[in-house]
Amino acid sequence: MLPHPISDTASLEAEILGSVKAGFPSPAENIGEKLDLVKLLVRHSASTFFFRVDGVSMVDADMDEGDILIVDRSVDPTNGCKAVCFIDGEYTVKRVEMGDNGAVLMPCNEHNPSFRPIPVGPDNDFVIWGVVTFIIKKA
Predict the structure, then answer these.
(1) In this structure, how many other beta carbons lie within 10 angstroms of the beta carbon of residue 119?
(2) N or C: which end of the chain has fewer CB atoms below 10 A?
(3) Per-residue pLDDT tens for 35-57?
(4) Which domains does the chain have, with CATH numbers?
(5) pLDDT for the residue numbered 38
(6) Catalytic-labelled residue, pool 21, 57, 137, 138
């Protein structure tokens, strides 16, 4: 899993066709507004990377195989955050639980008991590589 960097000049503009009600139908509004996806999804271009999800250990965290994660290395991790972690030579995405005795990397797939928490101890080569800030889903 290699990260894909974002350049400072990156831009992806598209025209917003309008607002769509998620309740009762109504006419579209705001036709012609411009939307720059990079400006919307990337806060810090120098420290933001894309990853593609490979596997199903995080489906209950709404991360499905093939989804794109936007990961920001400049965001400080917090207890319970979803993060890309580097542990013992491999990248993984997990929910990070931090406590007095260290961290535990938690899978989020209640339907598959083969995914177990990964305790992080002093013998592990470990770093929280970056915090997941957005998930781009396939329709």
Answers:
(1) 12
(2) C
(3) 777 888 888 888 899 999 999 99
(4) 4-136 (2.10.109.10)
(5) 81
(6) 57
